[in-house]
């Protein structure tokens, strides 16, 4: 238990420094610290991610960074798909889920490594009103945000990744929002979709060890506040590359644990 709480503190620090990563690292932390399967770790990770993301979203809301209408649309599409992801997760083998999770980590690391090379000048399918700075809600905007929400909800239910690493790159790729607006909006979606995932998981019979879940969330939130303070002293390129390297290490460790250390068949 002590190891899990220390890992939760580290997970929170990553969340505070990068603005994402809570769900990505919460599952491995629980699997390593408690020797749990992904299905056991998912509900606890969802609670910790929801609590941490909610605090981050509140801070972003106060600074006027949250695009609440886009967040609500993505949430409405995401919550039903969380149940679909949970159903798939319950029927899949722990080894398969672990390998899929590692593949997600490696994909994200690759995207982070190549992000600085993406051209800044290109036409976005989702545009902002030049006078108000708000999204122009045409059919294309609705369809894209509904699709973003559906993907986020499914991945939240399947892997309990929270969705921050899905939403932020999508918003950066398809809209002219700054990274700060993307992260703040993403945190609100993650908090609401994770909350929906918790309710769905409980309705499907998942159980939560309440005292441990509470301590895990407290450790993660504490780490998040520490990380936010540290982030002021770190250059963004260093954070991004270091984070990508950390993702690769965790992914390879999970693959080793799932394939090498366990007999096949």
Would you mind describing this structure in some detail?
- The protein is mostly helical and 265 residues long.
- It has one domain (2-260).
- The chain contains 10 helices and no strands.
- The chain has helices at residues 2-18, 22-34, 38-62, 68-91, 94-114, 139-159, 164-174, 179-203, 210-231, 236-260.
- Helix 7 (164-174) packs antiparallel against helix 8.
- The longest helix has 25 residues, at 38-62.
- The radius of gyration is 18 Å and the shape is globular.
Identify the notable features of this structure and list them briefly.
single chain; mainly alpha; 265 residues
Low-confidence stretches: none
* Terminal residue distance: 30 Å
Described by the principal axes of the CA atoms, the overall outline is: globular
Total tally of structural domains: 1
Structural class: mainly alpha
Number of strands: 0
The helix fraction, in percent, is over 70%
List the total number of helices. 10
Put the structure in a nutshell.
The chain has 265 residues and is mainly alpha-helical.
Fold topology:
Elements (H helix, E strand, L loop, with lengths): L1 H17 L3 H13 L3 H25 L5 H24 L2 H21 L24 H21 L4 H11 L4 H25 L6 H22 L4 H25 L5
């Amino acid at each position: 238990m002590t190891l899990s709480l220390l890992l939760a503190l580290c997970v929170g620090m990553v969340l505070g420094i990068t603005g994402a990563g809570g769900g990505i690292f919460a599952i491995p932390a629980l699997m390593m610290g408690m020797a749990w399967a992904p299905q056991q770790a998912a509900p606890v990770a969802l609670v910790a991610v929801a609590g941490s993301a909610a605090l981050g979203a509140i801070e972003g809301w106060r600074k006027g960074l949250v695009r609440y209408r886009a967040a609500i649309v993505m949430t409405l599409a995401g919550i039903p798909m969380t149940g679909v992801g949970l159903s798939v997760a319950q029927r899949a083998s722990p080894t398969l889920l672990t390998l899929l999770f590692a593949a997600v980590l490696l994909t994200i690391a690759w995207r982070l490594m190549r992000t600085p090379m993406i051209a800044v000048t290109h036409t976005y399918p989702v545009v902002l009103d030049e006078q108000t700075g708000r999204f122009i809600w045409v059919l294309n905007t609705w369809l894209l945000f509904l699709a973003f929400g559906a993907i986020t909800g499914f991945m939240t239910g399947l892997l309990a990744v929270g969705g921050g690493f899905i939403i932020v790159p999508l918003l950066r790729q398809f809209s002219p929002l700054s990274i700060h607006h993307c992260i703040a909006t993403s945190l609100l979606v993650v908090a609401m979709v994770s909350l929906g995932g918790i309710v769905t998981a409980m309705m499907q019979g998942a159980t939560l060890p309440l005292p441990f879940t509470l301590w895990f969330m407290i450790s993660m939130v504490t780490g998040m506040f520490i990380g936010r303070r540290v982030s002021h002293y770190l250059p963004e390129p260093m954070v991004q590359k270091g984070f990508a390297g950390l993702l690769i290490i965790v992914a390879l460790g999970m693959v080793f644990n799932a394939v090498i250390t366990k007999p096949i068949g």
